[in-house]
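A further point concerns the way the authors explain their paired sequence and structure data. Each protein is reduced to its one-letter sequence and a matching series of backbone shape codes. An entry of this sort, consisting of the sequence and the corresponding backbone structure tokens, reads as follows:
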Amino acid sequence: MKLSSIREYLFYLLIFIIPWQTRWIIRDPYLGGEVWEYGRISLYGWDILLVILVIISWPLVWQEIKNVKLKPRFNPADGGVVTKATKNQNDPPPGHYEESASGGRRGNLKRLLRFARNDNFYVYLFLLLFSLTSTLWSGDKLLALVWSLRLLEGGLLWLLVRALKPKWAAVCWSLLAAGTLQAGWAITQFITQASFANKWLGVAVHPLTQGGTSVVMNEYGRWLRAYAGQVHPNVLGGLLVVTLLATAWLYANRIKNHESRITNVILLFCYLLQLSGLFFTFSRGAWLGLFLSLVFWWWREKRNVIARSETTKQSLEVAASAIRRTRNDNPISSVIIISALAVIILGIIYWQPLSGRFTGQSTLEQQSIEDRRGSIKQSGQILSSKWLLGTGIGNYTAQLSENMPGLKAWRYQPVHNIFLLVFTELGVIGLLLFFGLWLNAFLRKPFAISHSLLAAVLVTAMFDHYWWTAPSMFLLLWVIIVGIAPKTETP
């Protein structure tokens, strides 16, 4: 097998194993006699695979940098005039490159800077530099350094995407495979109301009657929420939203291209399996994220149909007819209808636990609401003295333990809003840089699937912290932000 094929397949394997929690725990700290999960330092399987991929792909990365064209310069030999052809073409005429650009360290440095500027990578570099600097004032310097290295992994992933140029369809199939396995696990877990521990999969047992286990409880009973291979049902919910959108993209584009119906049936089966897994997480933020992202995607597709009709100067009647052809022009409509029917059926069958998540009258639901309100107040107290520079990346719960000593480790929880969490850890400077990354991601990829993925993450990030605090979801966030998305809307 060629090395190029090995690199490509390893990249798709990396996408597949990101959700899996196999790890070697390097540091296992305790607070209040309990393991402090947010202070743990671990080496995951995908950490190792990412490093291997970067090493064997580095020649391609360096070649990408060397292939960058430098800007033409003012050339007195040609009368100081840069020709019109030079302005409109990527390859300037001979003699217009700066002399130092032909080789040497200075030329390579210029190419490197221009390489980074192509995707506004400077914003990320400034965020990485600031997070590394935050180790100087963080309470737990080693923890801040580790999370800075996790931020560095996002940059390495960006380099791999630029060098390997992975096929978006293959990335979606990798996400589909991971999501389907996790969903099958989640469905089994909810139906049996049982879980198991396995060190190789990185999962712990979650007894239904034990305090701290995520459950749905009301006057009808007590139900274990689906964890699958994740640390919390909400994390599983966020993961399945991403894999559902990837599966929907594969299905929608195969419908557009009139491809194999057998494959479409398989895709729909996997989609419904993942949707059922998402339902059994009982994660309201994830439900809302999927709903809004699908509606946004549908709206984008509808707008594209209208734009195509106007571009070809069709009459209003023809344009209206084109809009009604939802199966081929906007197959997301059928995805939404199928999703709605499946959720209604599941809701009717499992209305008892579902009612517990919507009424909010149980003791657990009230406690959850109070805890979230309390975390916002705690964040405000920290920001009152650290609004400029923050606590240091990864040090939110470490700062809480200093402000409120003597509590059990599980009481020290990050604030359930990623932007408020970034603000608290990296201050106003880090928050502005993080906003810059989001803005760049929205502007750089003008495709419906790209914006739908970003919208899904944005919605779920408003109600939880796992995109910033769970290492696997942190890397998946960078998979989405760095723009592993199609150059066209078809695979």
In short: Confidence is low (pLDDT under 50) at residues 80-90, 94-102, 487-491. The CA atoms of residues 347 and 354 lie 7 Å apart. The two ends are 24 Å apart (CA to CA).
